[in-house]
């Protein structure tokens, strides 16, 4: 019967098609009309009413389109998991990222996932799994009524879950997800779910209540002052400042919401007045009506630890994985107080502002105390399945515990004091999150740790644990236990995914490469190895053209656990650590200890498949040696290096010379598109068919820095006939150093940042409101000025779920993926980009899930079908005129009336992050291409290319 399951498992999706997985392929049966279903991705198996000879589906608008006999016994159906994301918190965008990771790594023939979304008004929807790949909820909030099924109430939603899924996996961060809200609804309906019960969630989520409970349980806590109303009693706060030896005018404290997650609204304050003002801001902005003021732990080292429950049934047995030290990278170029906080931006955007160390660089006794304390806390607070616990290690030399009553409390060690501060009931589950970093260190792949957590949760619910469905799931979970980090046996195609490099977009490159690697791992006929093109001291926006220098660059072949880092620098540091005998022995000893503890608990369960990640060392090559290695192993190279030698034809030239297949355009097209001026010149002849280019004024960096800025501004605005300019590197990536300048004062701020080698310009540094601008550092040789193109503002109301477009200038900004062979490039559906933080898309908005808005496809209220088709035709003309092949991304302005295209730039190695618009556009194809199939298609195109024709 198991052999019947794969060819007959079908899914319905809001893309109007049935999708059937057959031996790794995706077959699509077109559906004539949009269905509003009771489960947005209905699984047509024994869980959803199969009748012999006819499919019967709980859906008011769908009739059977296919007569077939399906015989799948109830006891052999897949486990049905309800994945719930979204919520009212500001972290709902991150919730999408977490849900996407869970879906990618748990779904299979033995496990069936239905996806659900809670909006900011607590309305529940059944959504397509495709929506999880959106960049932010705002991408689809405004079209939910037509795209998904809305439940009349949360109660009706939970009633649906009770009959449609076996267990719920909630991944709502912050309010309603971690405060016991969704858990209470599930408990009342007796729906099994992953994670802690509602009562315990409420206590642990509230930072003030949790602190009180921790102190009662014998843990050292951070002194805090509770603010619950705007008119705070200053005398009481003054008394608290005095009691904790803080200066009332300048005493340094942290102000944070008590119930808004681990990073939202957290800010540094100085003195009583500043503290009250910032606490009032949190309350008045509606973030929370309960605010904590805590002493700032100067000289402390922040850490976080994942706790995994390995107990049997209702008996808890927490094991703490290897903790992570969070090192804040303070910028020498700025004195902004907020830089001292592990805030939302640091946590979720991969810029070089934070570094993680797993295990921490603490004494062994401190690490053991962290693990012991986190396990005790987990148990005493009644937590279940898994959690993340944050805290601080305060070395004795830097911090003295004020109160004598702390002396007998847990957390006092010979080396210093441990303070546990935050309990995260649903830890972030992005691809490189703490959960996966720490799990991979002790032998778990993404899939294995998530399925282990899910299986443990199932085992706590006796009716579910004893069901035949669970026996099927458990047996298949057991059979999945293969080592994924080592070479695969049998006939496999070797693939090297290359990322990193020296450009200012190397962190995005790391995200892209990691995503490609994880997706391609799903194919049994591929042996995929992640490879880091190592950054050197600092980084350059322009490649070194000296051939000897290029060949001597370093490439590291990486084991599984070393890829899951925040920055390319962290990956590189982890490589050196892994080869350092002392550090490697230290890590190995801790790893072995944790694995023994895990096996003592998990090994008692018949379903546990064991560990599937080996502890291999990285391998160091020169670039020349690495290319020879790729040639010897007949590997195909998937290029994910953004900018620099990854995008200017250098890597392409070296690979072609060795006869190695690679993804993306060839040498000449790469060189042309890397240079924004050359790109415009190559397309000038297409103006008569509606393909336009933007005028440019090129400046050398030295001239820009040494010429009177008034003269520069006067010359450029006159030449370009524009009072507002856009400045950008001439040959760097698509986001770094791009800014709108409205006056000579703005130019002064920008050039000062270049002169001081600033890594970024803080928000609102320029006269026109703007988000953080990542700067190329050191600056490139050439910059260009362009007229700033005004586009019509597109705004979105999160409360009314309505999209608003003024439509005055008739121009909108789009980004479009193109895929195919040379001369036959196919345009994917364009995405309209909406700028949330200013007139230039920030690095976050382009690449980081949870920020930015992309409208895919463009709403008909903005762009008609005929205009859309004209736009796509012109995009294909551009792609073929530039000799693109494989895949690329074209950024442009489009006239909403006639489809004229004003080209911005062409990216031959576009972002391939988990929420990139390329994924959105591939999912909008007919039939839709999910990420695994999309990246496999790009790899196949590389194998089909004519090497040597670039």
Automatic annotation (TrEMBL):
<dbReference type="GO" id="GO:0008716">
    <property type="term" value="F:D-alanine-D-alanine ligase activity"/>
</dbReference>
<keyword id="KW-0436">Ligase</keyword>
<keyword id="KW-0573">Peptidoglycan synthesis</keyword>
<dbReference type="InterPro" id="IPR000291">
    <property type="entry name" value="D-Ala_lig_Van_CS"/>
</dbReference>
<dbReference type="InterPro" id="IPR013815">
    <property type="entry name" value="ATP_grasp_subdomain_1"/>
</dbReference>
<dbReference type="InterPro" id="IPR011127">
    <property type="entry name" value="Dala_Dala_lig_N"/>
</dbReference>
<dbReference type="InterPro" id="IPR011095">
    <property type="entry name" value="Dala_Dala_lig_C"/>
</dbReference>
<dbReference type="InterPro" id="IPR016185">
    <property type="entry name" value="PreATP-grasp_dom_sf"/>
</dbReference>
<keyword id="KW-0133">Cell shape</keyword>
<feature type="domain" description="ATP-grasp">
    <location>
        <begin position="211"/>
        <end position="455"/>
    </location>
</feature>
<dbReference type="GO" id="GO:0005524">
    <property type="term" value="F:ATP binding"/>
</dbReference>
<dbReference type="GO" id="GO:0046872">
    <property type="term" value="F:metal ion binding"/>
</dbReference>
<keyword id="KW-0547">Nucleotide-binding</keyword>
<dbReference type="InterPro" id="IPR011761">
    <property type="entry name" value="ATP-grasp"/>
</dbReference>
<feature type="domain" description="ATP-grasp">
    <location>
        <begin position="683"/>
        <end position="943"/>
    </location>
</feature>
<dbReference type="GO" id="GO:0009507">
    <property type="term" value="C:chloroplast"/>
</dbReference>
<protein>
    <recommendedName>
        <fullName>ATP-grasp domain-containing protein</fullName>
    </recommendedName>
</protein>
<keyword id="KW-0067">ATP-binding</keyword>
<comment type="similarity">
    <text>Belongs to the D-alanine--D-alanine ligase family.</text>
</comment>
<keyword id="KW-0961">Cell wall biogenesis/degradation</keyword>
<dbReference type="GO" id="GO:0008360">
    <property type="term" value="P:regulation of cell shape"/>
</dbReference>
<dbReference type="Pfam" id="PF01820">
    <property type="entry name" value="Dala_Dala_lig_N"/>
</dbReference>
<dbReference type="Pfam" id="PF07478">
    <property type="entry name" value="Dala_Dala_lig_C"/>
</dbReference>
<dbReference type="GO" id="GO:0071555">
    <property type="term" value="P:cell wall organization"/>
</dbReference>
